Amino acid sequence: MKKKSQHSQPAKILDSSCEWKTVIGLEVHAQLLTKSKLFSSESSRFVEAENEHIHPVSIGLPGTLPVLNNKALEYSVQVGLALNCRINQKSVFARKNYFYPDLPKGYQISQYEKPVCEDGYVEFEYDGMRKKVRIQRVHMEEDAGRFHHKGHCSLVNFNRAGVPLVEIVSRPDINSPAEAAEMVRSIRKILKYLKVCDGNLEEGSLRCDCNVSVQKVSDSRPGTRTELKNLNSFKFIEKAIEYEVKRQIHVLEEGDKVVQETRLYDSAKNKTFPLRSKEEASDYRYFPDPDLRPVILSKQWIEEQRKKIPELFLPKSDRFRKQYGLSLKESFLITEEKSRADYFEKMVSVKASPKLSANWLINEVLARLNENKVQNIDDCPVSPENLGEMLQMIERKEISGKMGKRVFAKMWETKKNPKEIVEQEGLKRIDDAETLSKMVDEVIKKFPRQMEDYRNGKEKIFGFFVGEIMKSCKGQADPQQLNRILKEKLKT
């Protein structure tokens, strides 16, 4: 009987699938935010006109010599330090030989036996627990060009050729698709906190290769792995691994063998398909690049880079929960971006309540930024100091929470400070007993029938009177004072 193709859609997994263990390792490629390319002075901007930023070095013209970008080296070491790696004082660039239309030299300058960073780890929250995944290595390399497929032909854009990359290679410590996606999210946050990569998955400045295998839980031997290439979405990482795990289990349960190969993910069909057989390191014929000297780093220089590492999102989130009494969800939302966390701490620095600040930041500021399609909180027209001052006014009961929203809207429009807006708009809270008493008398006099109904036992009408009084004073009455005076007036 002819065996089913292992490239077909996997059938529904049998109950025996619980006997299988998933093993995943990740290779995260991050483009560094340098002004020029890794080995040439050409601009590293690649999202522009096709082949606008190309250089003799990047496209491998004869007689050209590469020169290492020092800023790229700094950024690479900072990434390694943030990932708790050992920084090697000596590292070597190597030529990785393979032939592909978007690699004009016929080889890629990368690092192999002696990378700049090794033996680290990354921690992140997953499924309510703190997860640690070991990092095997972080190395520098140059990016290749990019294909544009149009109909039956493919065009190559070399703008991206030579753009500096760091490749972050994990150990196979990940056991589920969702866990893999969460690890990439965490690495993205670290890179953005360091300001060494913009983390733009859509443009390809951050992308991920996933090495996936399955094995029986009782089996100590690792299964044959496949590589899922160039995934540029957290959703796609999860979906592609889910499919590949089911496909491999299906192949093995059918009595076939998994083929070691590189596969691509088709998001429209939600399936993976083979691209090429998986190369081993020997296939690339690595050897030290004769045009580049070894990189020698002093301990002093490494320590200078260590001082540039900011407080990262996970320890910051832990500190926010401990120092400010925030919930896990609040701390994670606020520390998602470094600029967002900085905005929060500036609010708190003017003595605004941390819990109230968190509530307003999440439910008002972020909501309005999203509504106005403003991506960076640094571009928010309301300064954190002004917002913190307004929250103090709410806490001191100078304005109500409802009035606070009106003041916030005016601050967004005018960028004025809250005190100025409150005075101009006449929004100061009315808590004077004599003034409130007169307001209550006027409303009761206006609605005699409702007053009789209240005295006859219809207590729900109390809310009607509160609403009418608030309407007459534009919501400026102090609620507690108003309720007390109104109850006394309705009884007499």
Characterize the structure shown.
By secondary structure, the chain is α+β, with helices and mostly antiparallel strands. It has a 9-stranded mixed β-sheet with strand order 2-6-7-10-1-11-12-13-14. It has a 3-stranded antiparallel β-sheet with strand order 5-4-15, with no helix packed on it. Helix 9 (about 385-395) packs antiparallel against helix 10 (about 400-415). It is built from 15 helices and 16 strands. The model is unreliable at about 10-15 (pLDDT under 50). It is elongated and about 95 Å long. It has helices at about 70-80, 175-195, 235-255, 300-305, 315-325, 330-335, 340-350, 355-370, 385-395, 400-415, 420-425, 435-445, 450-455, 460-470, 480-490; strands at about 20-30, 85, 90, 95, 105-110, 115-125, 130-140, 145-150, 155, 165-170, 205-215, 225-230, 260-265, 270-275, 285-290, 295. The chain has 3 domains: about 20-300, no CATH class; about 315-425, no CATH class; about 435-490, Arc Repressor Mutant, subunit A, CATH 1.10.10.410.
Low-pLDDT runs of 5+ residues are 8-16
* Count of domain modules: 3
Percent helix: 25-40%
Q: Describe the global form.
A: elongated
Q: Which class of secondary structure composition applies to the elements?
A: alpha+beta
How far the N terminus sits from the C terminus, by CA atoms, comes to 96 Å
The proportion of strand residues reads 15-25%
Number of strands: 16
Number of helices: 15
Task: Please summarize the sheet with the most strands.
Answer: 9 strands, mixed
Describe the strand arrangement of the main beta sheet, using strand numbers. 2-6-7-10-1-11-12-13-14
The average pLDDT is 89
Rg (C-alpha, Å): 31 Å
